[in-house]
Amino acid sequence: MTRHCPNLLVVAAAATILLLNPAVQAQGFGGRGPRVVSPEVADGKVTFRILAPEAKAVQLSGSDIPGVGGGAELTKNDQGVWEASLDVAPGCYRYNFNVDGVSVIDPRNPATSESNANTWSLVAVPGADWMDTREVPHGAVAEVTYHSSSLNRFRRMHVYTPPGYENGEGRFPVFYLLHGASDSDNSWSTVGRAGFILDNLIATGKAKPMIVVMPAGHTGAFSFGGPRPTVDEFSEDFLKDIMPYVESHYRVHADRQHRALAGLSMGGGQTLNIGIPHLDQFAYLGVYSSGIFGIIPRPNGPAPQGPTFEEQHRAVLDNAALKPGLKLFWFATGKDDFLIETSRATVAMFKKHGFNVAFKETEGGHTWINWREYLNEFAPQLFQ
Amino acid sequence: MTRHCPNLLVVAAAATILLLNPAVQAQGFGGRGPRVVSPEVADGKVTFRILAPEAKAVQLSGSDIPGVGGGAELTKNDQGVWEASLDVAPGCYRYNFNVDGVSVIDPRNPATSESNANTWSLVAVPGADWMDTREVPHGAVAEVTYHSSSLNRFRRMHVYTPPGYENGEGRFPVFYLLHGASDSDNSWSTVGRAGFILDNLIATGKAKPMIVVMPAGHTGAFSFGGPRPTVDEFSEDFLKDIMPYVESHYRVHADRQHRALAGLSMGGGQTLNIGIPHLDQFAYLGVYSSGIFGIIPRPNGPAPQGPTFEEQHRAVLDNAALKPGLKLFWFATGKDDFLIETSRATVAMFKKHGFNVAFKETEGGHTWINWREYLNEFAPQLFQ
Fold first, then answer.
1. Which residues of chain B from 103 to 122 reach within 8 Å of chain A, CB to CB?
2. Taking CB atoms and an 8 Å limit, are B69 and A22 in contact across chains?
3. pLDDT, position B145
4. B54 contacts A54? CB cut-off 8 A
5. What gap in Å lies between CA A121 and CA B182, rounded to an integer?
6. A225–chain B nearest CA distance, Å
């Protein structure tokens, strides 16, 4: 017979169902083994834990976590739980464990962030108003499946719609925001906090409400030994499929003055590869921690072949009629970034051709810490 | 200098960036160690692989994969790659590896499916028209952050909008679809294929275009030893926050005839806990692999306390005026499901009170194989 307080019975039933699940048992739920909480965020520290009684060594890998770099050692307690407690600034961090050579996401953390060929565990450390989840109107971030005619397969993008869009009216500008090498269309809205950053900017009146489209910049799995594409597959997909899809499926203004394009690292290169030849279509270009790849010759690199970017696009670069419509051409790169010289040389080349380039050299390196800040600084300058 | 075919330079730069990443190195990218592909879907088989040269034993756990159950052994080749190749029917499957006692998602597979307290690797095996990603108009599945006044914190839900919604007009009916114990608001749209099932049903004219809201049914982390909630927190959140949010943020018809509520397992119990006391608000109720928890007394269970569900809700159960507006009251449970007797007893109780209940006893057990099929059968009966 069902008794008082049905939800308690639901919880009890849930417990039974869970305990029947061997995979759940193996993860240290229930009565078997110590209860493991990970990650635990408190007092400016994040404690990472994993139950691995048989392991010989466990390291933590985490982009952007101070002191971690390629791997911080965890220490094991007498219950077989490995642990490291680290000072971490407010932000959002990807991490993985390495258990005796095997890459392992945190078995006790459901939050993840996708790359192109793997997934990371994700921990958000609150404390920075501009990127925290705050009590302001929130937009929605949708996973959208489209069929790419240029690639002849299904592809995915993420689309941020501003607060009120789903029950509102009117057309919006569109900001296309590209990820970096090895990442995916999921990256900007997870570790990049793009939706929350836009929510906060819109709520404080700093940015115009806009649609942010986050496409998948890789057109295949990385394969260092494998064949490389012979055409610029992503540009094709972007111009023939992504932009037309967005402009036919969303209430957008489909003209130059309402289109922005930016990207980080590889996505910054793609921004230039797409944006410069089609400068008549974009009024705002952003290049984060990037530039024209190869503009700096490598000391012992292969001999350069074919025309340079500058040679290829000379007609656009020297077309004075296109420049007034480019409202913002914005670069930002950290002083410690391995691409700082690439950014500097790229900015210099565009200035030589009469472009009004804003270039901000920031602290820091090639990190999501910077990319979130660049987004937070770039988005308010759009569509004003 | 930048050369011919900028995208090749992007790829080369991306390779450099990737190789600088120690976590990537550890995962068997690049030149270090064998190249591992996992999962590999071909000829009705899925091959699962993981590089773990130091491991003593590796098992595969996977809900619904035939022959796997609590763990299928993988075998190691001379390069330290463990592998199992299994016959798998078309569908969508969660899996994890267990490496010497540590739960490990597939390090080479970016696709995941969230539960409440962990994440699974996910593999889709095409071959079933009704749930494949097909060349039909696709809806969007959004991650939506809302502030729950009843729980006093931010919560997340997933919302499917039908094809054309974002650039269209008009109001739509709403189907609230609840997950089971241990799962999350992400589960129905990943392993449950809810968006793709709806896309296919709508494209073939079998289902009406509708909005599908997938809330988070757990209000906290599971803790078997910890305190249990003293009020039905999810019902509060659903009625005071989720429904009002949806009805104010989406173009929906906010009346009984345009509201459906269904759930699987724990979510089926929640459907009854919410839907029966508020029967004036729902015209369609679905209970998948579930019923009233505790309606079957456990042989050695604790003595029942307090009023039964039937006693608690007698006024609604015997209110003849509410019944004509309940267009569909649909149960489905597998014959091998451990809750089959719970479903039978629940259906019998409702029939005793004059409800027109449809009850389908299907093959199979407490599996996503059944839940996807139940969704595919239930959704076409809504809002017709």
1. 103-105, 107-112, 114-120
2. yes
3. 97
4. no
5. 19
6. 8
Instruction: Provide the residue ranges of all domains of chain A, joining segments of one domain with +.
Output: 33-125, 140-222+230-297+306-381
More confident residue, B32 or A96: A96
What does the mean pLDDT of chain A come to?
90
Give yes or no for a contact between B61 and B71, defined as CB atoms under 8 angstroms apart.
yes
Section A141-145 average pLDDT: 98
The answer to whether A126 contacts chain B (CB < 8 Å) is no
Q: How far apart are the first and last CA of chain B?
A: 64
Given a cut of 50, is residue A224 above it in pLDDT?
A: no
Nearest to B355 by CA among B346, B364, B366: B346
| pLDDT above 90 coverage of chain A, percent | 81
Whether the domain at A33-125 and the domain at A140-222+230-297+306-381 fall into the same CATH topology: no
Which residues of chain A lie closer than 8 angstroms to B164, CB-CB?
Answer: 249
pLDDT band at B3 (very low <50, low <70, confident <90, very high): very low
The answer to whether A119 contacts B105, with C-beta atoms less than 8 Å apart, is yes
CATH number of A140-222+230-297+306-381: 3.40.50.1820
- Residues in a beta bridge with B262: B177, B286
Question: How large is the average pLDDT for residues B96-100?
Answer: 95
Q: What is the pLDDT of residues B105-148, one digit of tens each?
A: 999 999 999 999 999 999 999 999 999 999 999 999 999 999 99
Paired tokens of A360: 């901000």
> In residues, how long is chain A?
384
The Cα–Cα gap between B343 and B332 comes to 8
CA A343 → CA A294, A316, A348, A362, distances in Å?
11, 20, 8, 12
Lowest mean pLDDT among A32-41, A292-301, B145-154: A292-301
pTM above 0.80, yes or no: yes
Peptide bond into A39 cis (omega under 30): yes
Q: What pLDDT shows up at residue B229?
A: 52
Residues 50-89 of A with CB under 8 A from B: 50-56, 61-63, 69-71
The tens digit of pLDDT for each residue in A148-178 reads 999 999 999 999 999 999 999 999 999 999 9
CATH class, domain B140-381, is alpha beta
Could you please report the per-residue DSSP string of A203-233?
Answer: HTTSS---EEEEE---SS---SSS---SS-H
CA distance linking residue A72 with residue A61, whole number of Å: 7
Q: Helix (H) and strand (E) counts for chain B?
A: 10, 18
How many residues does the structure list for chain B? 384
Residue A36: strand, helix, or coil:
coil
In b/e form, how buried is each residue of B1-30, taking b as 16+ CB within 10 angstroms? bbbebbbbbbbbbbbebbeebbbbbbbbbb
Class at the top of the CATH hierarchy for domain A33-125:
mainly beta
Taking alpha carbons only, the member of B179, B168, B198 closest to residue B289 is: B179
Q: Could you list the beta-strand ranges (E) of B165-269.
A: 174-178, 211-215, 259-264
Domain B37-125: CATH superfamily is: Immunoglobulins (2.60.40.10)
Confidence tier at B68 by pLDDT (50, 70, 90): confident
Planar angle of CA A141, A144, A146, nearest 5 degrees: 160
What is the ipTM, given to two decimal places?
0.90
Q: What is the pLDDT of residue B353?
A: 97
Angle, in degrees to the nearest 10, between helices B368-378 and B194-203: 30
**Which B residues, 209 through 268, put their C-beta within 8 Å of a C-beta on chain A?**
222-225, 228-235, 248-251, 265-266
- Rounded CA-CA distance A172/A207 in Å is 12
CB B181 within 8 A of CB A13: yes
